[in-house]
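Course assignment 3, question 2. Fill in each field.
Student: A.L.
Task: Predict the tertiary structure for the chain below.
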Amino acid sequence: MKLINDIKDSTLRAIARKVEDDVPVSRQDAVYMLQTNNILDLATIAQFMRLRLHGDVAYYGVNMNLNYTNICELRCPLCAFSCNKGDKKAYLLSLDDIEKKVKIAVSYGIDEVHIVGGLNQDLDIAYFEQMFTSIKSIKPDIHIVALTAVEYDYIARKNNLSLEEVFRRLINAGVNAMPGGGAEIFSPEIRNIIAPKKISGKRWLEVMRTAHNMGLKTNATMLYNHIESAEDIADHLWQIRALQDETNGFKTFVPLQFHGKNTAIFQRHATTGYDDIRIYATSRIFLHNVPHLKVLWMYVGEKMAQVLLRLGVDDMGATYHDEKIVHSAGANTPDYGSEPYLRSLIKEVGLIPVRTTAAYNKIDTGNNNESRSH
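Answer field:
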């Protein structure tokens, strides 16, 4: 039976027809999907795309988070993690501190380290070069996913270097991929309220374009459930899709649920299950040219993450040993998940767990050929 035959809502049926015919949906379509109450129809379309792209596989990673400093000159209203230099909870990890943390995590069997931090004026590019070189010396095949577009822009400006030179030096030092943080929402009006000192959405896209042209694959993110509108979300998705059409450098899109505790942003309400489903399903349908859609189980909770694996998402996220940022903003999920736990979450919804890194190369665990549970 064709997808279109399962859709009752007439507008969603027209969207389903586009999906079946590989026709990109419009921004107006995205706004409709973000506001519809026909959740089952929307979910049917998103799951059709997920199965077409990935079948019954769901990816997960075994990694650690490394937040090298929380000292940041931006102090964005949306952020509960950052500090001024003199604050009691401010910290900066030395290269020796980082080496010790990574060695411990490597002893646990991680494949990847995810590195982001604040814009700390005491750090120059040599700190990052030495950090990445040191990490690679501990485990040469470790996958380093490091620094947001905001950080690369800052390093370039602070060191009077071009973006291309910064990327060249840090790739040579060991960076393998780039996270998608700092995108927030591209709307200038909203961005001016939630992150007024952060680089613009336009600049974020320029940095990503440079990274892609340098051969670096990246994630893209979007922060939702603060003060944005459906139109703001649709525009954000459209700009991601447009750059992907140009560069083909985004491998994964990651919606990030906003957590408002300890921030200066008034949160309208806690997100509902319907809100999350609309966001993820619409993202999967709209971003037809971005291969992977990731849910961070620490942001939405384990049960909602499981639901979303059946509604468009193919990547469960990772173990995230020592996660700090979302937990600073009030997330009540654990700050670490074991590999057996993540595999069980995936198998419970009838999917086949596959361990991978940000490059989506399958890592043989001896279990990757197992059948999904019933």
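Instructor remarks: The radius of gyration is 20 Å. Confidence is low (pLDDT under 50) at residues 323-335.
Grade: pending
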